[in-house]
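User: Can you predict the 3D structure for this chain?
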Amino acid sequence: LGCAATPATITDKSGDSDLAGLLESIRIKERLPALAAAIIIDGNIYATAAVGTRKAKTKNWVTVEDKFLIASCSKAFTATLAAVLIEKGYLSWNTTLREAYPDLNMRSEYENITLIQLLSHRAGLPEWIYHVSSKNVTDQFAENWWTDRDTPTDMRSEYLRETVKENLADSPGKSVFYSNSGYLMAGAMLEKITGKSYEQLMTEEIFKPLELHTAGFGPPAKLDPQNQPIGHYGYFRSPCLEDFPVYMAPAAVIHISIKDWAKFILL
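Assistant: Here is the predicted structure, written as C-alpha cells:
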C-alpha cells in the first residue's frame, strides 16, 4: 500500500522548494501519486510547486509545468467564458433554451430554462441524461454517451437535443441538483449562438488573453504519456488513461498547469 507514496525527489523542476517540501509531506500522508499547489497573496502568485510521480510506482517525477486534468473545476472556465460572451453582447444570463433553439422540438418545461440556471445547477436537470435521479447512472447512458463518436460540437448538440426530450428531475428554479448535463447544454448554447466551437471560444476568449499556454482539452497523458501525469483511481491509486470523453469539456475535461491555473484564479 505504501508504493503509491514512496518519497519523491524534489528537483529544480518542482518549483518553490519550501512549498514543495510542504506538499510532499501532505502527499505522503494522503498516499497521492502527485500533488500540485499555488499560493496567492494580495493578488500575486507567491509560489507554485508540484511533487510526486506522473504514474504511481515509477520515478517519472512531475514538474511544476505539468498539465493536470482539473475535472469539474473546468466548470469555472465555462461560466467565465459565458460571462465574457455576455459582456460582448452575444447573449444574457437570462437567455432561454427556446431563444437559443427557436426551432428545436423540446418538452415545454425546458423552454424557459435560462443560461444562469444551467450554470448554477438550478435548471431541474439531473446529473446526466437518462438518470432517474441525480446519482443513478444507467447502462443506456454509458453505452450512448461515454464515448466520443463524433466531433465534440456535434456530440454536445446531439446531447442537448436528446436531453430536452427527457423528464426533468424537478421544475426549473425549484431545486439544486449538481448537473454535468447543465454545463454540457450551456456549452452547446454558447456554440449555437456564436457559431463557434466551445474549444475555439475558450481558446480565443480565455486561454489566449490570459496567456494560459498550458491549457487544453482532454487527458494530457493521452497526448504525451511520458511527460504528463496520468490519471489514477481507487484506493490502490491504479493508473488509468481513460477519463471523461473530450466532448464533455464544458463540464470536466480542461487540463492546465498549476501556474496557469493560478493565473485564472487571480482573474
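The chain has eleven helices and seven strands. The mean pLDDT is 93.
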